[in-house]
Structures are given as structure tokens and as C-alpha cells.
Amino acid sequence: MVSKPNLYLIGYRGSGKSTLAPQIASLLGFQCVDTDRLIEKQLGEPISDFFKRCGEAEFRRIESQTILRVANATDQVISLGGGAVLAPENRYLICQTGKVVWLRCSLDTLAARLNKDQSGAFGRPSLTGKGVVEEIQEVLQVREPIYQEMADWIVDTDAMDPHGLCEQIVRWWKVA
User: Fold this and answer.
1) Which residue range forms the structural domain that includes residue 114?
2) Fewer CB within 10 Å of terminal CB in the chain, N or C?
3) Tens digits of per-residue pLDDT, 83-95?
4) Whose CA is closest to 160, among 151, 152, 169?
5) Residue 39 in domain
6) d(CA 129, CA 110)
7) Half-sphere exposure of residue 119: CA atoms within 13 angstroms, side-chain side
């Protein structure tokens, strides 16, 4: 059997990467990798705690090391943290080792999902110290052009159910 490259899911936090990745991996018979979960396991603490204590630059350094480590394998669905695409070396490695699906969401959908998750269950640190809507707008101004440039395919996740999204992505993967 021939190994296939990795399938990377990119997008803003709350776009559905961590929810969809295990389902897509199961449908494809691939391994599921969530880089944020790997980092938390390595750190022994939630990303939000590490982020507050050590700052974004140190987190991004560890994130790049994690991406380098996981990119060396194949047949994986990899859920990347929303800012993983900021480093040029990460973008290059991701695009060289797999196909990229951007899970795109509207501002309203992202805000609703992130407001619902204020309990911090997924360790999502504030990136700007601003309100949710303002933060999303500011961060997406920088990230959307990068997501657009990297994406082999774009999936709008506002209205579809997770099962439907997974089936759509798997159909695309099989012909990509």
C-alpha cells in the first residue's frame, strides 16, 4: 500500500479542526494528530497557562518543533493550532508534506463558538486582550491571507453539521 501525504486542517480557533480531525482520520484509516493536544501533553499544562507564563514567542517555538516532528510521518489528519501558519518555515513544511484544508467560518460563527467556550476547556488564550469579536477581526486580518495562500481546498463550516463536513472533506481527499 502506498502512503499518502498528510491532510492538514487549518483555520481560526473554533473553526472545527479538533472536532473534525478524528472523524476524518477514522473515515480515511489515518492517524489523527492534534498539535495543540501534543503540546499540552509535552508541557504538562494547558496552553493558556503556558502562554500567560512564557509568552507567545516561546509557545510558537515549541509549536514549530511539534510540527516538524509530526510532519515526518504520513497518513495523518493533522489539526493545527490557528496560529501555526504564522511562521514561514511551518508553512513551507506543511505544504511540502501534505494537502491543506482551510476550515473557514464567519465572524459571527466564530464569536458564538468562542463565547460558548469561555470555560477554557480547550485552553484558548486571548491573543490580543480584546473582546472576542474585536480579537477575531484583528487576528484574521493577518491570518486570512495566509490561510488563503496555503489552502488546497476551502470548506465553509458555518452551516454544515460535522458529519456532513467530514464526508465532504473525505470525498475531496479521495480525488485530490
Assistant:
1) 6-175
2) N
3) 999 999 999 999 9
4) 169
5) yes
6) 17
7) 4
Residue 16's domain is classified under what CATH number?
3.40.50.300
The winner for highest mean pLDDT among 13-17, 52-56, 77-81, 120-124 is: 77-81
Edge-to-edge order in the sheet of strand 6-10 = 31-34, 76-79, 6-10, 98-104, 153-156
Q: Is residue 1 part of a domain?
A: no
Within a domain: residue 96? Answer: yes
φ, ψ dihedrals at 131, nearest 5°: -65, 165
- For residue 147, give the amino acid letter: Y
Q: For the chain, what is the domain count?
A: 1
510558537: which residue's cell? 60
pLDDT in tens, 131-160: 888 889 999 999 999 999 999 999 999 987
Domain-located, residue 27: yes
Beta-sheet pairing, 76-79 with 98-104: unpaired
C-alpha cell belonging to residue 93: 513544511
C-alpha 48/C-alpha 98 separation (Å) is 28
